[in-house]
Design brief:
Blueprint lengths: L11 H12 L3 H8 L3 H8 L7 H11 L3 H26 L1 H4 L4 H6 L13 H12 L4 H12 L2 E3 L7 H16 L8 H11 L7 H14 L3 E4 L8 E9 L2 E6 L6 H17 L5 E5 L8 H14 L5 H4 L5 H11 L3 H10 L22
Parallel strand pairs: 1-5, 2-4
Antiparallel strand pairs: 3-4, 3-5
């Protein structure tokens, strides 16, 4: 529903003036009837002095209607005046709005669709502030600065933080819709043995099952396709002390990277500080952080246990990969991804064994 944003205000004094003209009264006569000074009456008419409850009772007796009418007239004027001032302030924040992926947020229904033009910038800025649940760009900056201070990023050069913060916020919005039990670490660890065989299936087919398994342990899994300029593959964080969330952006990804990212984020939840936010980006320009190395190692070894390392190094052909994958009960695309990462085969080799994810989830 469109919010009323007037570009004008109607003074309560205009109603008083109209009634005085109907009666043929001067302000002097009106002031006498109201038992007020002419200066006071003039200030009420010009909205320099508000209509108080006492004044409203006098207006009821002298001009008619009810005291509530006059008080409501004053309240409406003050509200519209405040909104008019707020509209001008919102318009002044247009440059801040340009830092955010406005078109993407509109396209996926998180803010109303409008023309991105100066005429509509006050409404767009208001929509964005409501989306992030902050009162001003300064509050947004403070909130996101606090959040980014907890980031353990995988890149030395930060991506577009307006896009990143928007992607993270969309995950929060989806997570807020889910009623989740408190996190149970032991139950979650036990469920991983149930999750690993799911890698044999196409991710599209088991996405909902995976979410359900995670939720039983109190882990919320949300899929939010990446926003352009965000370059994010996944994030692990705690919304509350007992409420972890894993957020993945799977759009256009292959199953080897999807599953590696998923288990990488799991490692962060199981092994690292709850106060930190582990943000992993898609282009692989990693910062040399111990936490990231540990998470990589844990994910790699969970998917393909170390006891198969020597056998892994000998895999060169499609047939050998398929036989090995079948033996350890994991998707061959994941084996290919591991072989490519370790330089055993080229990145152009055996990619047909991987599967691509096609998002059916609106971000």
């Amino acid at each position: 529903m469109k919010r009323f944003t007037p570009d004008w205000v109607s003074l309560p004094g205009e109603t008083i003036t109209d009634l005085l003209e109907e009666r043929g009264w001067t302000q002097a006569e009106f002031a006498m009837r109201m038992e007020l000074s002419q200066k006071h009456v003039n200030e009420i008419i010009k909205a320099k002095t508000p209509i108080t409850r006492d004044t409203a009772l006098k207006l009821e007796r002298v001009l008619g209607s009810t005291a509530e009418f006059w008080l409501n007239r004053e309240e409406q004027y003050q509200q519209n005046l405040a909104r008019l001032h707020e509209t001008k302030r919102l318009e002044s924040w247009g440059e801040w709005a340009k830092k955010l992926p406005i078109h993407d947020l509109m396209e996926h229904g998180y803010i109303p669709t409008r023309r991105v033009a100066k005429k509509y910038f006050a409404e767009i800025v208001d929509d964005l502030l409501r989306l992030f649940k902050v009162a001003s760009p300064a509050a947004w900056e403070a909130h996101t600065a606090k959040m980014s201070g907890s980031f353990r990023c995988t890149r030395a050069d930060q991506s577009d933080f307006g896009a990143i913060s928007s992607w993270i916020r969309l995950g929060e919005i989806e997570a807020e819709k889910i009623d989740s039990p408190k996190f149970n670490k032991s139950t979650f660890e036990e469920s991983l043995e149930t999750i690993r065989p799911l890698t044999l299936s196409h991710f599209n087919e088991i996405e909902e099952t995976l979410k359900e398994i995670c939720l039983k342990s109190g882990v919320i899994l949300v899929i939010i396709p990446s926003i352009p300029r965000a370059h994010v593959s996944g994030i692990a964080r705690w919304l509350k002390p007992n409420q972890p969330i894993i957020q993945l952006s799977l759009y256009g990804k292959t199953n080897d990277r999807i599953w590696f990212t998923f288990f990488h984020e799991i490692a962060h939840l199981l092994k690292q500080d709850k106060k930190e936010i582990f943000l992993d980006e898609i282009d692989g320009k990693r910062v040399d952080l111990k936490e990231e190395r540990d998470a990589d190692k844990w994910a790699s070894e969970f998917l393909i246990p170390p006891k198969y390392s020597n056998e892994l190094k000998k895999l060169k052909s499609e047939k050998s990969v398929l036989e090995f994958a079948s033996k350890i009960k994991i998707h061959p695309g994941i084996v290919v991804g591991r072989l490519q990462h370790e330089g055993i085969i080229k990145y152009t080799h055996l990619n047909k064994l991987k599967e691509s994810y096609h998002s059916h989830t609106q971000p």
